[in-house]
Please model this.
Amino acid sequence: MKTGKDYLTSLRDGRKVYVHGARVDDVTIAPGLREPAEEIARGYDRFFDPAPGAYHPMFEVPRSAEDLRARIKMVFEADFTAFNSAACLALLGARGALRAADPVYVERIERFVARCRAEDVRIAEVISDAKGDRSLPPSRQADPDAYLRVVERRSDGVVVNGAKLHITAAPFVHELVVMPTKRMKAGDEDYTIAFSIPANAPGISMVTVTHAPRGDDVRHFPVSRRYAIPQAMVVFDHVFVPDDAIFLNGEIELSAAIAHSLGLWERLSGLAQMAEHADMLTGLAHLISEANGVSRAPHVADIIAHMAMYATITRANLEASLTQAEITEDGMAKPNELYVNAGKYYAASEYVLMVRHLHDVAGASVVTSPTMADLDNPDIGPFVEKYMKGAQGFESAHRMALFHAIRDLTADVLAGWHLGSNISAGGGLMAQRLVTRNQYDMQAADRLGWSAAGLAPGADG
Amino acid sequence: MKTGKDYLTSLRDGRKVYVHGARVDDVTIAPGLREPAEEIARGYDRFFDPAPGAYHPMFEVPRSAEDLRARIKMVFEADFTAFNSAACLALLGARGALRAADPVYVERIERFVARCRAEDVRIAEVISDAKGDRSLPPSRQADPDAYLRVVERRSDGVVVNGAKLHITAAPFVHELVVMPTKRMKAGDEDYTIAFSIPANAPGISMVTVTHAPRGDDVRHFPVSRRYAIPQAMVVFDHVFVPDDAIFLNGEIELSAAIAHSLGLWERLSGLAQMAEHADMLTGLAHLISEANGVSRAPHVADIIAHMAMYATITRANLEASLTQAEITEDGMAKPNELYVNAGKYYAASEYVLMVRHLHDVAGASVVTSPTMADLDNPDIGPFVEKYMKGAQGFESAHRMALFHAIRDLTADVLAGWHLGSNISAGGGLMAQRLVTRNQYDMQAADRLGWSAAGLAPGADG
Amino acid sequence: MKTGKDYLTSLRDGRKVYVHGARVDDVTIAPGLREPAEEIARGYDRFFDPAPGAYHPMFEVPRSAEDLRARIKMVFEADFTAFNSAACLALLGARGALRAADPVYVERIERFVARCRAEDVRIAEVISDAKGDRSLPPSRQADPDAYLRVVERRSDGVVVNGAKLHITAAPFVHELVVMPTKRMKAGDEDYTIAFSIPANAPGISMVTVTHAPRGDDVRHFPVSRRYAIPQAMVVFDHVFVPDDAIFLNGEIELSAAIAHSLGLWERLSGLAQMAEHADMLTGLAHLISEANGVSRAPHVADIIAHMAMYATITRANLEASLTQAEITEDGMAKPNELYVNAGKYYAASEYVLMVRHLHDVAGASVVTSPTMADLDNPDIGPFVEKYMKGAQGFESAHRMALFHAIRDLTADVLAGWHLGSNISAGGGLMAQRLVTRNQYDMQAADRLGWSAAGLAPGADG
Amino acid sequence: MKTGKDYLTSLRDGRKVYVHGARVDDVTIAPGLREPAEEIARGYDRFFDPAPGAYHPMFEVPRSAEDLRARIKMVFEADFTAFNSAACLALLGARGALRAADPVYVERIERFVARCRAEDVRIAEVISDAKGDRSLPPSRQADPDAYLRVVERRSDGVVVNGAKLHITAAPFVHELVVMPTKRMKAGDEDYTIAFSIPANAPGISMVTVTHAPRGDDVRHFPVSRRYAIPQAMVVFDHVFVPDDAIFLNGEIELSAAIAHSLGLWERLSGLAQMAEHADMLTGLAHLISEANGVSRAPHVADIIAHMAMYATITRANLEASLTQAEITEDGMAKPNELYVNAGKYYAASEYVLMVRHLHDVAGASVVTSPTMADLDNPDIGPFVEKYMKGAQGFESAHRMALFHAIRDLTADVLAGWHLGSNISAGGGLMAQRLVTRNQYDMQAADRLGWSAAGLAPGADG
Model:
């Protein structure tokens, strides 16, 4: 296994990363990137085990509901690239489908996953294409590269062009797991390509945006100073992919298999995070209501009850998705797709109301509280201390820290990223409605409907 | 065990039942009461087992999540008084608390439950008091009987006065299980009384309302002709209760123990029924969209997806409440109170939107469809047949039956009862918010809140 | 002008009306129909003026926002067929479009409206076709009569076949104003037919449903005993329409003109009724909270504030639709279509939550309160009186009457009709969203969007 | 009237302003403050009129609904301190109440307003106190200065201590209009003090927070680079207020009069801004859907229709508040309080859903789009240009500018400020519900309720 130091060293591999228009030579020291790199390094150290054969639990294949539960707990304790390790599970989960097309894909996948585990590497899930005009299919775009595609076929591999958007943590991983974004049709064979590729492979560039705090004083950003994860547009400019790294190549009927498999794990992660987040926001609402001295006001208590309700319903869906997990023929436990989707939908679509509730409880100081630097200033500090005092027992500095945490989580840069990505992750709210509709047992519902009408099931239609 | 015929015979026991101002001599033949009585009788027959010692599964004590799941399934297959058997579970579940007060209560409860099981009797849950002015406690009401109370204490029992409202199926049961409606305070000792009493005991009258179809043609009411369950105001006018039937007598600190225990089971029933109902309404929306030929219209498909989402989230809460069940010291499995409440709240508060969705999909024929009698009429029938035709493959009569089922369930007498009782059952939406707030692990949430602020848990407050 | 007696006499004209499978010989005496007929007759008498040339204000053409406001007030004071008189306004409002096609249509419309006014007749708006398979256009239906159409053209008129659904008050009017339900396409000329026809014309039958109280004791139905308006499927079986009564005949490009014109007035009526209804439900919530003694409970006061909010927002839309009325070239004031639609949408889609709020405030007695007949019963009446008592100052009988009103309005037969028709009137919620989208000034919104992006309006796209 | 240059000069008056812990010597050049100062200066120039006696229209007293409408239009064209000029209207609007207490207050107010107009000064509304423990009244706080109060009374004025929070634009104005935050009780006389004071008066310090863009490249912040308005905690440390500037002094029964009067104008501003904002967000959703090529996808079109609905309903409330304005005895037009509050509540409480809709339409590039600097980079720029291309006719740079505008408005620093302040402005959602409840005509609603129950109004209660 790698130590944190090994990890940081490994990132100095010539990768081409750009931030706000400028090339970054070393992601481990550049402002806005250094902090997340160090956060991941600390994660490596927390899980480091010098024993030979030891590996990070993110590479453990879950075989039961309990394993799934353990995995979720682990992900919160590990660094945030642990979410991405779901790409390995997705590849393994797609084996059933891929085996039929060509058993060699399965062998390559198993080799790739074994290598990731052995070398303790971090990976990124690389899916969304640029898409150009979304009303047109890949093969009818004005620019044929709007979806990533094979532009040249060689004896030992393929060459690809294209760009993948919204790639979480891309500048911090070793391997990119690339797959088609959706179901392809006849004529889209060149767009039907899945593979792994090192992040520093020739022809790859990463245009990165960060949601890291933009100010100097990290005390103003108690959450985002630790958890702002960059995203990148990953550009593929004539990138060579050797055969051994290819997991799918032209089989249009399987084009969506890996992405679909991954979608499930991504939404599970999203759901688990939102369940945790829901508890955190509820706790902040409760604490600030006490700091303000309003926790017993009926309308405040009732808003907090609404928040606890949201948190509980979100968690109920997570629970149901685990205990109703499906065990595949390979013995892998897959969370229940129906509950994962419904839960992710509920949590994401109601999340904005949680933000509103929290702001309603906390008041305007969420966005107007003085900073810790104001508190330090010898002239004005004593006044800030005096007037930011709330209910007895709460220090002004602590009350201010709560306001800053609330602002940082729900009314600032990282907050914006949460709002935007909660909705977009997994393809927008419509996508979750579609999956729920497809996974829902409509035949059973129809039977109840016929029965209500006093008719035999399937009387018509 | 009793047969259906035994059951009907047993109801002719002199009980005093009134409907719409008139005394009913025999509930097994009176219009509006005969139908539910026969429905229960059929339930007896479905579960009849002549073997000695056989008993109805509604009296089985659940000991695991699986038992709870089986119990829910059984309740849907049995007659609707099976819900009420939860009163036995509630009494058994309160033993822990009552044992401390007086072990004799526990003995009486166990004897009572054993007798119910042996004699295959049906029971009612008798809780809500008349309450008078709700802003005042029992002992300060203008009429001291506004809450049921002991008006006389004798050597062998007590005499009670009062009225209990909204008692489901009261005219159809053998035993009433009576308990205080809420936590009592010092001075309320006479109001702290729980007991069982036969439905035909002297001094008991039942003022009954039905939501049975008010028309002659039951084809117009495919659902309510079977499932309209009467409720009654049960009046206690100097009713003698022997000591052996008393389960609580003056211990104000335990006054809410049985009702609280029962509340959990009632909300579980409510949640399970609403989960079933949600699937049924979704099925009806789907079927009528096909009958109308609009199932592929995007906005219709999307509404149905919303309905499937509601059904799934409701069921996720039910699932979580079962798999996270608590096993009591007596070995009884109690569903998880947090998930039961949150689920019941979600389902009840969003239910009205399901009704709206269903009406939006089905269209105005829900409330204007001709009747089956119109179809039978030789003059007008052929026109009704001709013009109520929808998409190919659906007979007019079937499409009309679907409209009638939707109306009966969501836009007619029984529908009104669903709307009203969904909200009120378990004490109104506020009650569920309160219980959720109390059961929610706020300390864990607070810890996440402190952590977000970068402070040690419990830094203040 | 007609007196109420004149009106009742005029209904005995041989019209063919069916209810629940049976022909009704005289709608003025048949149970379920007599009550609404008498309600309309009383409306005639309230507005009767023996002066020559006097006419009912429902035939007044509004020329200003104030006239529109006066019209709304009048409609609530008149009988409920006053809503239908909007068909005259719709015909007059469509003159601009029809004049271009053929001036004779305008002359016929003006003659028809003048005759309605002079003879004080009542009319019905006859629009929705049977529609068969809704995924198919009129000319591709399995049954060509699925949309009403001309089956024969004669020298002096046309013969039509078809059925029109959901026709409010049809059995109680003198004239049916029939129009196509939607925009027709080339080949649909025979479906493009608008006309007036007497309700007793040969070949017309009306299959009627009522939402009148189904019980004997009207005290149990304080609202619906007065306001249950029957709907009918109106069947046209080879009905001859003379030329002079035809307002549109084959001009497919104008097929939707009258219905669109009428839709605006229908939605205005719907919006005005829902505004009134909203105040009524808020008042009932407030009164029952006082009767129950809970009006000061914070969560109850807050629910009532939510209801007042809904009522106010609904009324704000009504206000805006009146004060922003458009004056046509003919000098007629038309309510603002954007606000009418948005308001109708808001009110209809949130209405179900008002019902939930009211039930949440009122409690389970909404569906379980004893009847007035129970109160009259000498045995049980005193107990009902004693135990239905609420807060001081409220008589039991009055508190019960409030419960009955709430049930009748929101949890019984008429309530179901409200729920269903609120949503379906005006074509379902999607229809209102479409109209709002079309009427909304998207170009102005786009300009603001471009400006936010720092770009010139219309930079692209 | 002042020019922009005059204005900037006038701000260099020794005022004590702190930002992030450091004293700012000159607010017209400090980063984060310079930009808004210049924005205001441009506003001065736009309205400059050299004619003697000319004055800014923000000081015009509205006398009709049309004047109110004109005022709203003017505010959007003027600089953002125009909102604050409502403090003058609020003072004038409170004259009726204050005249009874002491006519001298009225004279001082009129002199103050005349001076503001003559000298073209900008003012701030200074209301919210620090409040300490919100469960306690002013006089029972641990720190008696938790609410601003008179600490010394002199022959020619008073000396005050305290702090006022969330003071919009405070560092940019000339005069602070200070008033009590709420209704005071007996014993709170020293807290009942209203006055005006120059922003640079001895003893005043302003602890300022900005929501200005934190990055260097303003192209990334097309909205906030212009509209980020700082807020300040304004500290009063033994500030002397001369008699002539005092508008209220100890009359506890009038303590809330000015704040109440101001609240109405503040909420009107909030409502007008949210109506404008709603159109802007709808326009952005529409434009980005076209840029993405998805504007014809049914679910996208439907989301945009929902947004247009929100914008329309918000505007309907604004319209109704203007056309139903009340004309005071002084001839001033006051917007209708009921509609202002209901509208502000609706707009603020549903706003978060607008943000969700916009994110759902726009997709993840809202938070991951590369910057304009990336587009400028010679290495990576061509790829950004190539892959950020959307539907034909949209330049990549324009599509990116739309994403940046959406992020800046709804998913970044300024966005957070909008979310937080929308809810908190005017006192939280509960405050609007309370005002609506108080202003709503409950007696009229009760009459409808009694009537529904078939009873005479006021039968009981």
Remarks:
- Chain C has two domains: 4-54+94-255, 258-446.
- Residues 258-446 of chain C form a domain with the Butyryl-CoA Dehydrogenase, subunit A; domain 3 fold (CATH 1.20.140.10).
- Chain C touches chain A at residues 298-299, 302 (CB under 8 Å).
- Chain C has a mean pLDDT of 94.
